[in-house]
Design brief:
329 residues; alpha/beta; 12 helices; 9 strands; 19% strand
Length: 329
Amino acid sequence: MFRQFSTTLLAAALLLVAASARAVTTLKIGTLAPSDSVWGKEFKKWAAEVSNDSGGALELDFQWNGQAGDEVLMVQKIRSGQLDGAAVTAVGLAQTGVTDVLLFQMPGLFPNWGKLDAARNAMKAELDSKFQQKGFTILGWGDIGAAKTMSVGFEVHRPADLQGKNCYFLAGDPIGPTIFAAIGGINPKQVTVTEILPSLANGSITVLTVPPLAAEQLQWASRVTHISPVTIAFGIGAIVISSSRVQSLPQNLKDILAARGREATERLTKSVRNLDAQAFARMKSSKTVYEPTDAEKAEWRDLFSRVQKELRGTVFTPAVFDKVVQLAK
């Protein structure tokens, strides 16, 4: 009888273990960030907090360093169910069909972080609704940094200085090609983020307009020789996840995922701007720094203004464009 009782207990224990294993939900999340980067460390902390709060019932499995593809492919994989979510920049967010989000990364539009924050906060509810209509949920907004122009072997004072140079744009970005076309004399190369470092090494890319922190974290900074202190645009991003996948979760797991995701992006927002400024200071000490004249800066402003108007009504919804431009002033 004792043996039978023990066998019954063992069977019951095994059933409990099996049931527990079946109860674990894993969300696959893609990112271009390396696992040991500023973003990677924060995402790991987010995953640990979600696992701890849920008692191991919800796990986040990050696909680091572009393993899940570029941002265009990651959004496609979310649609097809191959990924549950992704941490992406505005370019990736635009692949959901909400192209108005690219306004927050529009060169020359925002004079500082404060104006961008005010505009993004004012538009947040409207944008969240647009993403939901496309089948995506924003778990939290974040920042990439203040983009500066960096180059290899030359200075970029005015738009014409890019003519004949090796420029690039990311797949899914409608703004870069429009700017290059407006300048003329440029044949830009379309690349993925993971292709930028080898392209810098072989000389097929010689110009970057990216935040210093991103340039350091992705090892691009070691390849450039010149940098302008002028902020061209502000890089933003967000954590986006399939709305249907979120809805499939029990309410307690939804709450944990949303709360911890929001906290993670809020922490990143606070730290990234400071770290980006520190990265810029380090780059200034090892690169040739040059300051465009007021007349040269005016040429850039004129270019960006023309491009903004060209994209209004095509990439940007006119009503949203007008509202965000007004908020940026």
